[in-house]
UniProtKB/TrEMBL annotation:
Protein name: Integral membrane protein
Provenance organism: Marinovum algicola
InterPro entries, sorted: DUF475 (IPR007427)
Transmembrane segments: 24-44, 50-72, 93-118, 143-164, 184-205, 211-231, 243-262, 268-291, 312-330, 336-354
Presence of keyword Transmembrane: yes
């Protein structure tokens, strides 16, 4: 078998042939084929008609596109974290991590919400999803408020932590990011901003929703801080061989919680298209594989280094997504707006990066 660069091991080895985009997407295409075949079989067995089968195939395809559009910024953030991890932990994240992402967040997580919310057993939740999907979807909708508060808080902390960094010296939106980097030395400034935002949104809710939103948001904040503390404690012993592996574990846990936060919006939004848990798992699982492929491509090709503002666009998209999740506690916001908004921010940052590269090449002295 041809030896390519390590699955996430940074830039390709010198002398190794550059991988084509199709080679990165190979497994995503395989999973797409298997997923659509499974979706077609599910559609035929549940409806018994060609039209019903084609409808379910279409829903699976739309869900996959929804997941890709919502999670492209997730791929960029994953790549940003992966490039500082050891190769062995990079591979572990892209194998075990993706299994957790696909099966854990797209199948187990919705079931767990129903188990907790309805106070029923796991097998009863599976039976409910298969036999009474309308009731299952209703329980998921009822759980949307705490999910939005938890995920929105965690993602806002992720986004603000990127910009409130006094060592950050590359700025896309100069007037804003310079000020944020300058004030990064103020201890806990990101936490203060997030708490003020949470207080504002909790005050806009009524009755018991206020307490549910606030307590869920606090748990989201605590989860971020605990993961950061855990990563710091593990990374502090990174000089030892065992410690290096533990440091990778801290980053691994961070990425898993981050992926979970990104998945909240897609899983809940999927119920607007179908109430069938298994169709949702197929569609979102296909999309998650493309996110994995994009992550590997970004790391191996050094794309984040080549396009200097791409990370900025992704983290702005994360902050925008966190605000949207907060706003969804008050009003419904179509998932297409969430996906297109994030894609637009990343697209503009990519265009700015390309323009900056052209200016730099134009200013470079001619070799003589």
């Amino acid at each position: 078998m041809t030896q390519h660069p390590s699955p996430t091991g940074g830039a390709p080895h010198s002398g190794a042939p550059a991988r084509s985009m199709l080679s990165y997407l190979k497994w995503a295409f395989i999973v797409t084929g298997l997923g659509l075949a499974l979706g077609g079989w599910l559609g035929w067995t549940t409806t018994g008609t060609l039209a019903g089968m084609l409808t379910i195939l279409f829903i699976c395809a739309v869900l996959a596109v929804l997941e890709i559009s919502l999670s492209f910024d997730n791929a960029i953030v994953n790549a940003n974290k992966l490039k500082s991890m050891t190769p062995i932990w990079q591979r572990r994240f892209l194998t075990w991590g993706i299994l957790i992402a696909v099966f854990g967040m797209r199948i187990v997580f919705p079931l767990l919400i129903v188990v907790i919310s309805a106070r029923i057993g796991p097998w009863e939740a599976i039976t409910l999803a298969a036999a009474r999907p309308e009731e299952y979807a209703h329980i998921m909708e009822e759980a949307h408020l705490p999910i939005a508060a938890f995920g929105g808080t965690f993602l806002m902390m992720v986004g603000l932590s990127f910009f409130f960094d006094h060592e950050k010296d590359v700025h896309w939106v100069q007037w804003l990011e310079r000020r944020m980097a300058r004030h990064a030395t103020i201890r806990g400034i990101e936490v203060a901003i997030v708490l003020v935002t949470v207080l504002i949104f909790s005050r806009l809710l009524d009755g018991a929703d206020t307490q549910v939103f606030f307590s869920s948001a606090i748990w989201g904040l605590l989860t971020f801080l605990l993961v950061e503390v855990l990563g710091g404690l593990l990374d502090s012993t990174q000089k030892a061989v065992k410690g290096a592996a533990q440091g990778g574990l801290g980053a691994f846990l961070y990425l898993e919680v981050l992926d979970a936060s990104f998945s909240f919006d897609g899983v809940i939004g999927a119920f607007a298209l179908t109430q069938n848990l298994f169709i949702i798992a197929i569609g979102l699982g296909i999309g998650a594989m493309y996110v994995r492929s994009m992550t590997i491509m970004l790391v191996e090709n050094g794309t984040l280094t080549e396009y200097r503002y791409l990370e900025h666009g992704a983290f702005y998209a994360i902050i925008a997504l966190s605000v949207i999740m907060f706003m969804q506690s008050l009003v419904h916001i179509p998932e297409v707006i969430t996906g297109l908004g994030g894609a637009a921010l990343i697209g503009v940052s990519l265009w700015s990066s390309i323009r900056w590269n052209r200016v730099e090449r134009g200013n470079a002295p001619a070799s003589g």
